[in-house]
User: What shape does this take?
Amino acid sequence: MDVAERLVNAARDGDARAIARLISLIEDADPLLPDVMRLLPSPAKTPYVVGLTGAPGVGKSTTTSALIAHWRGKGARVAVLAVDPSSPFTGGALLGDRVRMQSHATDSAVFIRSMASRGQLGGLAAATPQAIRVLEAAGFDLVLVETVGVGQAEVDIAAAADTTVVLFGPGMGDGVQAAKAGLLEIADILVVNKADREGADDAVRELRRMISMASTRAPGEWRPPVVRAVAVAEGGVGELVEAIEKHRGWLASSGEGGRRRLARAAHDIAVLALAMLTRDLGLRADDPRLAALAARVASGDLDVYAAARAIVSP
Amino acid sequence: MDVAERLVNAARDGDARAIARLISLIEDADPLLPDVMRLLPSPAKTPYVVGLTGAPGVGKSTTTSALIAHWRGKGARVAVLAVDPSSPFTGGALLGDRVRMQSHATDSAVFIRSMASRGQLGGLAAATPQAIRVLEAAGFDLVLVETVGVGQAEVDIAAAADTTVVLFGPGMGDGVQAAKAGLLEIADILVVNKADREGADDAVRELRRMISMASTRAPGEWRPPVVRAVAVAEGGVGELVEAIEKHRGWLASSGEGGRRRLARAAHDIAVLALAMLTRDLGLRADDPRLAALAARVASGDLDVYAAARAIVSP
Assistant: This one.
């Protein structure tokens, strides 16, 4: 039995170290990976994937922690992926946060892992669905994917999750800002966190107004609810769970869930195919052919289209 | 004289409509684009590119507006690109904000344009440097690129700008959050905006502490300053301008400016080469070959690596 097979079998039995090791292989785009993915068994049940996103400081981790507590109370096995956008300059997250959410660290039915990509093109967009696939094979009931940020990171989380929860703080700026960031379009559920603070009522009202503007009111359409929460005290978590369960039911009854899983598979394949092409092309900053073309582009001697074409069709 | 040539000549003469039209071609990845980029003249002078980024609500637009006013006062021609992360669901930004910063709208030496990508892979990362290239050919002295968000959007802005300014609000969460978002690594200058509000002193102190931890103290290293600003009243804009000019001087004297321009050209080529490959492969959600593979992956019949490999090496 080779390494990949041993790791996959151990992960399948719920061995946390093996699961963590497989996720490290994914982060590193390890050569073993294609074998690992081929060996992962088709799961008897698919975990439900909930994405949590929002700007820094809105309370994603405390909300995640409250959700873990809730589902653990129901006997579910829960995995958390904390996705840090990595810096291309340091090749990884500046601070490891694997020690976060320590209250759950000793619970063997809870698996918590932060993820970073090592700066390769394709990065976390390619790594996250593969990590979810590993957690699926390991038999988790729920996977929570927590990602910081506004921008591409959310688009990626929305592509990977069944239900996407977007968190806002009470004073995070008006709804126009939220809309500009594209957050409303990816949100299945909106949460105004720290709802005991000043500005929360305004934030709730403004988000409801924006949703009502964006809604097409088509029959059977999902209308994202706005939930008020005070996650640090676990207030409002019951209501959030209820909203998630309701969305889950809608995904199943409307057929949208199946459509999303198909679209997700297509997205995962496309992202991975591009990453393979990138690797095949050797498109790295230290590639001498690319460096020579870059010098000509920087000096104005060659335009960027001609240079890119020279790479693609040498 | 064909369309591309006419547009390029008009843009070169500073015609705002021609410049806007060329940027639309870029957003749409128009087939004319390779011709346009080939025809763009090598500029006599290169504009200085300043990136402004930060979470929604920290005051990027008001800061941008204050910077425009400052540089216009010095007689410089200033262009602004407001980069909205586009939604993959609607194919564009939800709200156009081309009417923003109206106080400068009637000044012909100021060009303001919001940008969205139409959802193609390669998106804004490929489009932004091309738009800067158009503004360069049109003879602007300064280009301000304003982008919302935390995540990939900043990494792209740092790849496109000479000086990257990261804005924080007074109560945006602690330095650990900022570090996690990778913001510190891309910042050449940090601004605590709305510095008249509660929490500003703490934010400044925390950011300074984080920078000092991240610094290697190598001789000649750039140490990002933390500037306090109240952009809505134009307070602190003088200090921000001073920091930008100082960084500009350091880029020139240290040789880092030349290295960055080379790295940027390499990055632009790589992004564009990937976008070309994506188009050549027909990696779109409605591609029947991709859809068939996605159905097999979703049902567990095929793993995502094997599917991606089938796309890359049919």
Notes: The longest strand of chain A covers residues 48-54. Residues 86-102 of chain A have pLDDT under 50 and may be disordered. Residues 163 and 244 of chain A are 7 Å apart (CA to CA). Chain A touches chain B through 89 residues (CB under 8 Å).
